[in-house]
Design brief:
283 residues, alpha/beta, 11 helices, 45% helix, IolE/XylAMocC-like
Length: 283
């Protein structure tokens, strides 16, 4: 396996949304533990841009790290002010260029694929194409996350959406757990969606009944439930064959941890992932 084709791994700055830690400390931690980059939450990215001018990018480069993606939310659908979405997208593109990243993550609306009518689906497709044009003009890819309550909430829905959008700059951020949550086999989902998959999210849970802990209102609340959040190795989704399959993809994957004690957990998670990849690399 060449280093160029090897799976690379980022930590998510949203992991530390309720933790008092500086960006400098995050960069140092990521470098020490062998991460390849940082997935920067949109709110954090904008703050860094406004508050710190160019110094933070230099800090990342000096540590041998990259910003693998900005994760934000560009509102689309029939019930949004799309003009505001376009303005936000343009602002994010400036921040993305400043951070040196080529990817912005978003959701395909806030309603599930089985909830929308044809008109809403077509309008969302139209809007994603417009956002795709804006991103493509700046050399950026717009990644739609596979996520419950969106138009990419299961593998066939994500496939249909990508086929309809049909835009070279609009790709997918594949969240394996959410495909499993939808009743789809994670690896079969990857095989179907592979032409569009540009990034991976990795997280796990003890059982299907606990997947509600990943709902936005739980994640963003400081006192939200974290019950059921577990390591990749110990959850209901079997990540061993998944890591084996994507190990030579050359893409980035983010360890998306929303639970307690993030420093300890991420140390253990990246250690497990490196061990798995090194074992494959030595074969």
């Amino acid at each position: 396996m060449s280093e160029r084709s090897r799976l690379r791994c980022s930590l998510c700055t949203i992991t530390f949304r309720h933790t008092l830690i500086s960006f400098e400390e995050l960069v140092q931690f990521a470098r020490t533990e062998g991460f390849d980059g940082l997935e920067v939450w949109g709110a954090h990215a904008v703050h860094l841009y406004k508050a710190w001018n160019g110094s933070k990018r230099a800090l990342l480069e000096g540590a041998g790290l990259t910003v693998s993606m900005i994760s934000d939310y560009l509102d689309v659908g029939t019930q949004v002010n799309f003009a505001d979405t376009v303005i936000k997208c343009k602002e994010l593109l400036v921040v993305a260029d400043w951070l040196g990243t080529s990817k912005i993550r978003t959701f395909a609306g806030m309603r599930g694929s089985r909830e929308v009518d044809r008109a809403e689906f077509e309008e969302t497709v139209r809007q994603l194409r417009i956002l795709g044009d804006l991103c493509m003009n700046q050399g950026i890819e717009l990644l739609v996350e596979t996520h419950p309550g969106t138009l990419a909430d299961h593998k066939k829905a994500a496939y249909r959406l990508m086929m309809e959008v049909n835009h070279e700059a609009v790709k997918l951020n594949l969240d394996f757990l959410h495909m499993w949550e939808a009743g789809d086999d994670p690896l079969e989902s990857y095989e179907l969606l592979a032409p569009w998959v540009a990034y991976f999210h990795l997280k796990n849970v003890t059982s299907l009944a606990q997947c509600s802990v990943f709902q936005p209102h739980q994640v963003y609340a400081a006192n939200g439930s974290r019950k059921g959040m577990v390591s990749l190795e110990n959850g209901a989704v079997n990540y061993r064959p998944i890591i084996d399959r994507i190990s030579q993809s050359g893409k980035f994957a983010s360890l998306e941890w929303f639970g307690a004690d993030p420093i300890r957990v991420l140390k253990e998670e990246i250690g497990w992932l490196h061990h798995r990849l090194n074992r494959l690399h030595s074969v």
